[in-house]
Amino acid sequence: MSSNKKYWKSVEELNDNSSIVETLRQNEFVEEIPTDEFLGDKETLESSSTSRRDFLKYIGFSTAAASLAACEGPVIKSIPYINQPKEIVPGVANFYATTIADGYDFASVLVKTREGRPIKIENNTDAKTNCSANARVHASILGLYDSLRVKSPMKGNDTISWDTFVSETTSKLNSLSDDKQIVFLTATTPSPSTNKLVSEFAEKYGNVKHVTYDAISESATLDAYQAKYGKRGMANYDFSKATTIVSVGADFLGDWQGGGFDSDYAKKRIPENGKMSRHIQFESNMTLSGANADKRVPLTPNQQKLALAKLHSLVVGGAVSVDLPENIAKAVQSAANEISKAGSNAVVVAGIQDVNAQTVVLEINEYLNSKAFDPKTTINTRQGSDKGVMQLVADMKAGKVGALIMNGVNPMYTLPNSTDFAEGLKKTELSVSFSMKQDETSVLSQYIAAAPHSLESWGDFELKAGHYSLMQPTIRPLFDTKQFQEVLLAWNGNSTSYRDYLKSVWTADVLNGASFNKAVQDGVFVSTSTSSVENTEAVEDSSSDDNVETPSGNAARQLAASAKAGKMQLVLYPKTGMGDGQQANNPWLQEFPDPITRTTWDNYVTVSRADAEALGLENWNVANGGLNGSRVNITVNGTTLENVPVIIQPGQAKGSVGLSFGYGRTAEGMKAEMKTGVNAYPLYHNFNSVQDVTLSKASGEHEFACVQLHNTLMGRGDIIKETSLEVFNTKDRDVWNAVPLVSLDHNPVKVTDSKVDLWDEFDRTVGHHFNLSIDLNACTGCGACVIACHAENNVPVVGKSEMRRSRDMHWLRIDRYYSSQDTFEGDNEKKENISGLGSSLSEFGEMENPADNPQVAFQPVMCQHCNHAPCETVCPVAATSHGRQGQNHMAYNRCVGTRYCANNCPYKVRRFNWFLYNQNDEFDYYMNDDLGRMVLNPDVTVRSRGVMEKCSFCIQSTQAVILKAKREGRPVAKGEFNDACACSAACGSGAMRFGDVNEEGSPISELVKDDRAYHLLEHVGVKPNVVYQTKVRNTSQA
Amino acid sequence: MKQVIYRNLTSKIFSVGFILLLTFSTSLTAQEGDPANGKSLFNTNCAACHKLDKPMTGPALRNVEARLADEQGLDREWLNKWIRNSSSLIKAGDAYAVKIFNEYNQTAMTAFPQLSDQDITDILAYTAQPKEEKPVPTTGEVKGTGSGGGVSNDLILGALVVLFGLLAMALVLVKRTLNRFAEAKGIEIPVDEQRKPIWKAFIENQFLVLVTAILFLLASGYFVYGYFMQVGVDQGYEPVQPIHYSHRIHAGDNGIDCKYCHSSARVSKTSGIPSLNVCMNCHKSISEVAPETLAEGKEYGVDYNAEIQKLYAAVGWDGTGYTGDSKPVKWIRIHNLPDFAYFNHSQHVSVAGVECQTCHGPVEEMEVMYQHAPLTMGWCINCHRETNVKVKDNGYYTKIHEELSKKYGVEQLTAAQMGGLECGKCHY
Fold first, then answer.
1. Residue in chain B lying closest to A765 (CA)
2. How far is Cα A681 from Cα A572, in angstroms, rounded to an integer?
3. CB distance A763–B428 less than 8 Å?
4. Coiled-coil regions in this chain (chain A) (predicted)?
5. Test mutation, A82, A872, A942, chain B, max B CBs within 10 A
6. Smallest CA–CA separation between B336 and chain A, in Å?
7. Which of residues 726-785 of A touch B (CB under 8 A)?
8. Which chain A residues contact residue B275 at CB under 8 A?
9. Digit-coded pLDDT (tens) for A819-876
10. B72-78: Cβ within 8 A, 24+ apart
11. Shortest CB distance from B344 goes to which of A78, A941, A963?
C-alpha cells in the first residue's frame, strides 16, 4: 500500500512537539528578512546621527547619480582570432571524448568545450565501462580552473623553469649511489604506456621500485584475488545479471572497488514483466547501497564477518559455528535460502577489508557459478598494495630510498603514519611531487612538478582487462605544467612527445591494427586480445608470507575467528561528495549535500540512536532551521581526534560509528573555507577501514549546514508512493497508485478530471511538450545530476553559513525520505508474527523506535513545470510565465524579487538570490575569479542579486536541439531531447528520462502513461510536467 | 574640373607617346605585344603573386624581360619555359631558376601552360611599360581655386551685412527726422493707451495658468520619458575602430557576401568578427587600393593603404610571408545585447532567411559601421509579430505549421504565433 506509511526527512519530524518543524511547515523562508543586517539593529539606529530624512536624501542622490552614470554605456572590445582554428566556431560547442582519471575516480567522458575551454563533462555513451560519471567526475572540471593551482615547477618556494627542473633532477638521479633505491610512488595508474615508461626508466637507472598507493585501500580484495587467480586485480561484477544480490558491507553503489556498478544495478531494479532484482544488504553505516536495498540489516563489522562466514557455510557448506543474535541469524539464514534458490542468478559481495572475507566471497560466487561474477575481466582501477607502502615508509626511514618520485598521491594527508613518512622524506636525496597543488606532501618535497589537470593531459588507461580508455587534452595547458609521463620521457633521454610515445605503444601493443585516431575520437577501445598491462610494481613480497591459499571453509573459519566481539567499532568510509579528499578545494563538492545525511561542508561521526542516548549525544534544530549537534572525542589505538561533530544516523548499526575520509585538509593550496571537517586518515591504521574505537562526549556544540529540514513539503502527503512487488504484480493500479479524489458537488471526482480544474485547459498536442520522468526505483541517489545541473546552469555556491540558513541554490535537490516498514499495518502484522521471548524483546524494541532501521527513498525534486502553475498567477510583474512547450519560464531581468512565487510553490523549488554571488569577495568561490568564471556556461545568464531562479528544464539545450533540427530542415530525431536536460543526460542509471510527449513512440510518451506514473502532490491539481514512477520494493522473499 | 581634364589629357598623351615609343623600340627586337591585353592577362593570372614594382610572393616584374636579358643573359625562350612550367626548369637544375626558387621560400610558381606565345608577349609588353608619374602638382592647383571661392563668398556676405546695417540706420534716422518735423509743426502724435501687458493678463487668468502648467508638465514628462527610454539604446553608435574598415568598399563596391567574412552567422549564435586569416585570403595580394579608391578615401580623411598596413602589422605579414609576430586587433563591439537576452544569428540567417540588412541597415553603404537598429525588446517583438515563419522546404515545420495554422485559421503563421513572443525563448 502506498499511502499508509509515514515518511520523514529528519528525526526531528518524528517529535510531535517540535516547534521548529511547525515553523518550517508554516514558513517558506525560515528566517526573517535580514533587515537588521542591512540597517543595523535598533540601538545602532538610535545612536546614528543619520536621520530618516538624511537617509532619504542620500538615497535620492545616489539613485540619481547611479542613473546618470548608467547613461554612458561601457565600451566593449571584441578580439577575434588571428588565425581561427577550423574546428572552432565561436558560439558552437565542440565535444571531445576523453577520460577523467585522478587515481581514485576513473570515467570515460565527453567534454563540452566552448571557444576552446571545457565547460562541462558528460557521459560518453559509446563507452561500455565506467561510462557514467559520478558527482565527483562531473565536478572535476572545476579543478581545472582552480586559481590556487601550482602554476610552474617549484623548488622549495621558488619557481623554476622546466629546463632547470629536468637538468637538476636528472643529475641528482644519476649521482645516486647504487644501493639507494629510486622509488615511484603513484596512485593507481592502469596505463600501458606509463608502465612501459617506468620500466624503461628502471632499465636506465637500475634499482627502481614502483609502489602503487591507493589512499583508500582495496588491498585485501587484490590479495584475495591474487591468491586465488594468480594475478593482481579485482573481479568484475555485472549486477544487471543478478536477480538476488547479497552485499555484506559493500557499498557497491558508492566507491566500493572503484565504483561504477550503479547503472547495471539500476537496470534490474525497474520491474519488468513483474520481475526485478532483490537486494539484501548487511552493513553498519547507512550507505547508498543500504538505502536502495529491499532488505537492510544493520550489523556491526564484527557481526558482518560472522554473518559472511555463516553465509558461506550455509551456501557452500562446511561447518562454522558463529554466535549471532537470533534475529540476525534468521536474516542470514533467509538470505542464504534466497541465494541457494536463485543459484547462478545470485551474487554475493563484501566490503570487509579482510583477505579471508574477500576469499569467502570469491568462493561463494564461484560455487554459485554466478552469472554476475566475472573473474576474468578484472577491474584495474585499484592496484594499491598496503604492504608495498608500509615497506616503502620503513625503507625511507632506514635511509634506503635515494629518490622518491610521487605522482597523484598525497601521503602526508592520507597516510595514517604520516609523521614517519615525513621523517623518511627528509632522508631522501631527491623528492619530487607531481601535483596540481601545494598540498600537504608537495610542500615538503624538494621539487613540486606542476602537473596538468586530466583535461590538459594525454593518457591511456586499461580500466578493465581489455577495456581501454584514452585521455586527450581538451585545452592548452593553462599554466606552465608538464605531466609525469613527459618528464619520465625526459629522464629516459627520450625526446619524443608523450603523445607520440603513447601512439607508438598503442600501435605496437594495444590497437592490433585498429586506427589510433578512431580510438582517440571514441575515447575508448575494446581489445579482443587479452590484457597487456602488467603492473610494474614489485609484487614479490605480497603473496608469500600470508598464506591465504586455503581449502574451502578455512577462510570462513578464519574470518569467523577474527571477529572479536566487544568494543565499539568505527567504520571509515568515503563520502559520496568527497571521495578520498583530493578534490576538497572544489566548492561544488563541498556544497553537495550528502545523499544520506543531507549535510554539506562537513564530515561527522554517525552514531546510532541507542548509542547516542547512552553517550548523551544529541542533535537538535535551532530557530533558524539549522542543525546543531554534540561533539565527541574519538580515540583509536592511541590516536585521538578531538571535537568531532556527531550526527545521529537512523539505520546506523548499534555498536558501530561511521566517519568519512576526505575532510580536514590543511594544505596551503586551499581556500580557508574549504579546510573544513576532520581528517579521518590518522585513524586508518593498517589501512583497515574498521577500527576499535572509544567515544567520549566533548564540550561545545557543532553547527551543521544540513539541508534535510529545508524546503520540506509542508507536511503534505502523497509525496512518495511505494508498494511491494507482490502488490504491484497482483493488484490493480488503483490500489497502489490511486489518483487522488476531490469533492465536486459532494461527489468524489478524480483530480485529473477537467471538471474540477480552476483553469481552462490549453491545447498541448501541438508542437513539443516536454516531460521529465523520474523512476524512484532506478534512482540510487548518487547525485551526479545535482552537479551536472550546477555546471550547466551556472548555479552559484553560497557557502556554509548561507547553506545553514536554508539559502541553498541547488536547482535540483534529492530529497531523502526515511520510512519504517513497521508502521501501521506492518506493525500489526509484525506483532502477530512475534514468536518467542527473545524475538519479541528485540522486535518490540525495534518497533518502539522506527528510526532504528528505516527504509530509505530518494526523490529528485526540481521545478515541476506545472501546466497550471501557482507561481505564475501570483507574480506581480509577470516574470514567470508558461511556454507552449510545457516549460515554466523565468525572466530574471523582469523579476523584482517579491518572492511571492516561492511562497506559492507547493514543491519549494524556487531559489532566491539573497546576495550577488558572482564577483563578490564575500562569496570567494569560483565565480569570484577570472579563472573560475571560465567554467560558466555562456548560454545561461548569471543571475544577480534579488531575483528568483529555478530549474528551466534546460531550455537553452531544448532550444538548441530544436534549432539544430530547423537548420537541418528535419523533424527532431527520436530521443534527441533526452540529453537536452543536464540531469537526464548525467543520469547513468536511467532513472531520469526527458523528452517530448507529443513525439510518438518516444520513451517519455510511454512513461507518462505507465501504471506506475504519478505526479507529486497530485491532489493540488497543478498538473506538473514532471512525472514520478512509483517505487516498488521487492519485499517478497524468494 | 578643368585641371582634371587637363591631367588626364597629359597623362594620356604621355602614355600614348610612350606606348608608341615602346612599340617602335621593342618591335625591332621582338614580336609586337599589346600592353592593354597584357594588363588584363596580368591581372587575371599574375597579380595574385606579382606586382610591377614591389616583390610580393614572387618578384617584381617591371621590365623583367629587359632585366633578365641584361643581368642574366636569359632570353625569351627561357622566360617562356619558366612561365609554362617553372618546376621542370628547377628540376633540370637551371642555375638561375634554382636561385629564384630558393630566394622565394622555395615556393614553386604556378605553371601556366595555357598561355600562348602571344599572351606572354602581351604580358611582357605590359610589364615593360614605364612607371606612371604621379601627378603631384595638379592637386595643389585644385586647392588654390577652392580657397579662392571661399574668400569671395565671405566678401559678399560681409558686404550684405554692411548694406543691411546702413539701411537700418537710415530708417531710424528717417523716423527721427519725421518726428522732429511733426514736433516743429505742432502735430500731436497720439499716444497709445496704457494697456495691461499680456503676461500680466496671463498670470491673472488662473485657468490659462493651469492649462499651461499641465501642458508644460505633460511636455516635460514626454521628454523625460523619452530621455530615459533611450538610456542604454545605442542606435547610431559609431565608434572609431582600430583599423578603418570600410564596409562600403567590401560589401558595396566589391559585392562580397556578408557571410563570406561573417561565416559563423550561418551556424552559430554569434555572427563572428572575422579572424584575420579571413582578411588575408584577399589581402595577401591586395596591399594597395586602386588610385581612384585612394582618392575616395581622402574624402573620408582615410588613407586606405595605411589601414591595410595596419592589418599587415596585426597579422605579422611582411609582404612575402608571415613573421609570426602578430598582435590581435581589439575591435570595438557595436551591437551589444544585454547578457540576459539570448539571440541566435543562425536562427535568423539560416532558418528564417532574414537579410542581414533587415537589422543591420544598409551596411554596403556604410563607410564607418554604425548601429542601425535600436536593438530594444520592442523592436524585436515587433518584427516577430509581423514576420511570417519561413516554412518552405523545412521538414521541421511541416507538422507544427499545419496544426498551428489550422488552429489559428491562417495561411501563414507569424513568428509570434509560432511562440516567438514567449519570454523563455530569449531569456534564460
1. B403
2. 9
3. no
4. none
5. A82
6. 8
7. 763, 765-767
8. 80-84
9. 775 444 444 455 555 554 444 445 544 544 555 678 888 999 999 999 999 999 999 9
10. B72/B96, B76/B30, B76/B124
11. A963
Compute the nearest-CA separation of B234 from chain A (Å): 8
Q: What is the CATH number of domain A584-706?
A: 2.40.40.20
Contact across the interface for A83 and B276, Cβ inside 8 Å = yes
Contact residues on chain A for B231, CB-CB shorter than 8 A:
67, 70-71
Cβ separation of B231 and A67 shorter than 8 Å? yes
Q: Which residues from B are below 8 Å from A936, CB to CB?
A: none
**Type of residue numbered B209:** V
Rounded Cα distance between A559 and A305, Å, is: 6
User: Tell me, what's the ipTM?
Assistant: 0.82
Q: What is the DSSP string of A923-983?
A: G-SGGGSTTGGGGS-TTSPPP-TT-EE----SHHHHHHHHHHHHHHTSPPPTTTTTTTSHH
- pLDDT per position as a tens digit, A594-619: 999 899 999 999 999 888 988 999 88
Specify the amino acid at residue A232.
R
The model's pTM = 0.82
Using a pLDDT cut of 90, give the percent of chain A over it: 41
Average pLDDT over residues B370-392: 91
Between B231, B315, B396, which is nearest A70 by CB? Answer: B231
- The rounded distance, in Å, linking the Cα atoms of B23 and B128 is 10
Question: Do residues A923 and A797 lie in contact, with contact meaning Cβ atoms separated by under 8 Å?
Answer: yes
Partners of residue B267 in chain A, C-beta under 8 Å: 89, 92, 967
- Chain segment A648-688, per-residue pLDDT in tens: 888 898 889 999 999 998 888 888 888 899 999 999 988 88
Question: Taking CB atoms and an 8 Å limit, are A767 and B419 in contact across chains?
Answer: yes
**C-alpha cell at position A211:** 609502489
pLDDT at position A620: 85
Residue A606: in which H helix or E strand, if any?
A: strand A605-607
CATH of A719-865+879-890+951-1033, one of 3.20.20.110, 3.30.70.260, 3.30.70.20, 3.90.1150.10: 3.30.70.20
Asked if A89 and B267 touch (Cβ cutoff 8 Å), the reply is yes
Note the residue count of chain B: 428
Q: Which CATH number fits domain B2-127: 3.40.50.300, 1.10.1060.10, 1.10.760.10, 3.30.300.20?
A: 1.10.760.10
Read off the pLDDT of residues B56-95 as tens digits, 9 standing for 90 and up: 777 888 888 888 888 887 788 888 888 888 888 888 878 8
Higher pLDDT among residues B202 and B105, named by residue: B202
Type of residue found at A512 = N
**CATH fold for the domain made of A234-379:** Dimethylsulfoxide Reductase; domain 2 (3.40.228)
Residue labelled with grid coordinates 579482443 = A528
**Cβ <8 Å between A940 and B428:** yes
Q: Which residues of A touch B260 (CB under 8 A)?
A: none
Nearest to A382 by CA among A572, A105, A576, A581: A105
Residues 6+ apart with CB under 8 A from A1014: A718, A721, A737, A739, A1027, A1028, A1029, A1030
Asked if the C-beta of A68 comes within 8 angstroms of chain B's C-beta atoms, the answer is no
- Domain ranges (residues) in chain A: 234-379, 584-706, 719-865+879-890+951-1033
The Cα of A969 is separated from the nearest Cα of chain B by a number of Å equal to: 4
Give B197-228 pLDDT, tens digit per residue.
888 888 888 898 999 999 999 999 999 998 88
Q: Is residue A83 less than 8 Å (CB to CB) from chain B?
A: yes
Tell whether A963 lies on the interface with B, counting CB pairs under 8 A: yes
- Beta-carbon contacts of B334 under 8 Å, excluding residues fewer than 6 positions away, are B234, B237, B238, B239, B369, B370, B371
Whether the Cβ atoms of residue A742 and residue A1019 lie closer than 8 Å to each other: yes
Give A-chain residues touching B401 at CB under 8 angstroms.
none
